[in-house]
Design brief:
Strands 1, 2, 3, 4, 5, 6, 7, 8 and 9 form a nine-stranded mixed beta sheet that branches. The two termini are about 20 Å apart. The protein has five helices and nine strands. Helix 3 packs across helix 4 (about 195-205) and helix 3 runs parallel beside helix 5 (about 210-220). By secondary structure, it is α+β, with helices and mostly antiparallel strands. The chain is globular and about 60 Å long.
């Protein structure tokens, strides 16, 4: 049987989603809890890989298991009591074997939070940037992004992506007082892509680069041409569509 599991997590103390040696990850913790409660080895497959420190408000994974009852509300409740406070499972449902949490997804949406005035309530989930930003110009930059599909310039060097092609359907900044929210949706994302995009667009917003420079950066397909990778703590995966 194949099960789809919906969850959320605060990635602050994890080295991303995917299991890796010598580091604690969300997948590792979830797999250990599922295996202990179901009394069989369980290995989940996630809808994507989040970087170290990145959060997820809406994450989807699947796992195969011959034990019945994993989709019962009582099991989900027991699992949540077993999991640490920074990981929560919303539900588990039985699905067909054709479902794949990663490859069946048609889009993913991320949000990045910026605050431009000191705010103690945002420190753990937003990037403090007190230097002033031209949000209108940054949204012009978003229009430039939407003209392209190859985002090699925003891919972390050494990434194992088979292709650097991504199809964006949304990219925009919304300013609300001293808070700025960047929302971006695409069929897929490259490693470190969103954080590099935000870093480059803030360079546009503070006048360090022009729209013409942005075109050149994207067309260079060179990560060294783009801006800094902004802090992970302000980035969250907020929606996965199937």
């Amino acid at each position: 049987m194949r099960y789809k599991i919906s969850l959320a997590y605060n990635g602050g103390r994890y080295h991303g989603w995917q299991v890796q040696p010598n580091a604690v990850t969300v997948q590792e913790v979830l797999d250990k809890c599922l295996s202990a409660l179901l009394h069989v080895p369980v290995e989940t497959l996630g809808c994507g890989r989040t970087d170290a420190g990145v959060h997820a408000a809406d994450f989807v994974a699947h796992f195969d298991c011959d034990v019945k009852g994993a989709d019962e509300a009582s099991f989900v409740g027991k699992l949540n009591r077993f999991l640490p406070q920074d990981i929560v499972v919303f539900g588990i449902t039985e699905v067909g074997e054709e479902f794949n949490a990663r490859f069946s997804a048609v889009s993913r949406t991320y949000k990045y939070l910026i605050h431009t005035r000191k705010d103690p309530f945002l420190n753990d989930c937003s990037w403090y940037y007190p230097h002033g930003l031209d949000v209108e110009m940054m949204n012009e930059g978003c229009k430039v992004l939407m003209q392209y599909t190859d985002f090699a310039s925003f891919c972390k060097t050494g990434g194992d992506n088979g292709t650097t092609i991504c199809h964006l359907t949304e990219a925009k900044f919304v300013e609300d007082g001293h808070r700025i929210t960047f929302t971006i949706t695409a069929d897929r994302f490259l490693r470190n892509m969103v954080r590099a995009v935000v870093g480059t667009l803030t360079d546009l917003g503070n006048g360090r680069i022009s729209l013409d420079d942005l075109h050149k950066i994207i067309e260079s397909k060179n990560r060294c041409s783009a801006g800094q990778s902004v802090p992970a703590k302000a980035l969250s995966l907020v929606k996965v569509e199937y």
